[in-house]
Amino acid sequence: MNPLSYFYHLSISIVLVRSVDVLDNKIEIEKNCRERNRLITSAEGDIFMLVDAIPGQKITLQCHYCAENDDQQPKIWYKMKAQRNSKPEEVNLGMDFNVTHNRVRVTIEHSLIIRNVTINDTGFYYCIGLEGQESANKYSYLIDVVFDNGTNPETGNMTKWRQYHEEYFEPVNQMFKNSQSEEVVYVREKLFLSIEVVTEWEHWGPCEVCGRPPGEGRRHKKGFCRIKLTPTANISVTTARSDEESILLDVYELSCRSLIFERVFPSISQDLKYLPHFVQIERCDGLCNPDAEGLSKGWKSGKRGGFKYRKSYVLAQSDHLVLICPESTLLSTVIWHRNGQVLKPGQIVQAGSDEEPRIIVDTFNTLYLHDVTSEEDGNYTCQVDNVNMQQIDIFVVSKSRILTQAFVRHMLYLAFVLSLTFSCYCAGLFITWKKRSNFKTYEDLLMEKGEKIYVADSDYSEIYSDED
């Protein structure tokens, strides 16, 4: 292949990789990353992050912390079946020129993508830099291929979760302690493992307030059903009967629906794989943020931000504001939203039955806020031809608060000026007093000008002059 042809194919491959990365951003992919500030119960509990993968699913393992960007340093992905009886091997990536045909590939941000996950993908995955720069950071995962039981998660508050735990988990945990079945006895006496079903919580999601009444926001936190494996004695992995069993001796937890666990202990798995997950729901307060709540997918393909423009206004009560969506024309289709609800052109949002309207959208897609009160603050967004163009946060406060803050601010300025002036005045007086011997007296000044000086005495008065 001549050099010109080589660089041509190389440029085409780079374009294909970037185009596929953009396509992956549009397609719903199970993305996994590690939190920088995560809760660590023990050193063993931070060795890897457990990733549930359903057969046929596409997953992504990121080689950087969540909400952070890749440092653009070269990195390599390694895989291990088990940690103690196998050596890390470099992940076999697809080599097809058309990257869309590769089942396993790495993105330009060094994220590992696996399509059509199978049980053979089970194992430990590590992202290591060529210069060992990730030795202090743990970008390590355990892919656990799970059984899709189709059950819906239980939902509710913490009280509901306690009932859920007593109903689903307590009977199974008692069975692990007291059962004399062959598999349970083998786990306790041969593998020296203590099994317990627990809930592993993920982080809270955003406060969802768009389209909800004030004070009725909701946030969710998902709890996964996990098999906690605790060794009760030291045992060598060489005693394991299979590779799947050696994995059980290397991990501290697995999914309740784990296919590896089902292969080794099918009877125990039968009691676990149909246990539902739990989603905790609680009330929260906040402002409507369509980006955080997933109501908008970005103002342009490939952009991370939800809206092209962002503004915020602080208005005093009874103020007025006119908002025009940027980059819009008379031929554009403009849609205004307030806290996630559509404001139609020509629509008048009535504040009350006996009050004048405070929110008006005219036929030219201009938004008017008239005589605002605290009821009108919130999140306002506009779209131009289905493009998320602008997001505006409006805060309404009382005039007394604004005037008080302005008065306090100006009093602070005045106090600073007065303190500076007084300090300079006192410093001048002190310097003058220290150098008082260098100053001439009134008599000395008159003598220099040749003027007469009148000196009064108690008995007589004489007149002196320079001419005498």
From TrEMBL:
Q: Which GO terms describe its cellular component?
A: membrane
**Domain Ig-like residue range list:** 56-127, 290-393
Please give the InterPro entries that the UniProt record associates with this protein.
FAM187A/B, Ig-like_dom, Ig-like_dom_sf, Ig-like_fold, Ig_sub, Ig_sub2, Ig_V-set, Immunoglobulin_dom
Which keywords belong to this entry? Glycoprotein, Membrane, Signal, Transmembrane, Transmembrane helix
Membrane topology classification: Single-pass type I membrane protein
Taxonomically, the superkingdom here is: Eukaryota
Cross-referenced PROSITE patterns: IG_LIKE
Check the record and name the Pfam families matching this protein.
ig, V-set
SMART domains associated with the record: IG (SM00409), IGc2 (SM00408)
The protein, known as: Ig-like domain-containing protein
Q: Which family does it belong to?
A: Belongs to the FAM187 family.
Per the annotation, which location comes first and is thus the protein's main one? membrane
Q: Which CDD domains match?
A: Ig
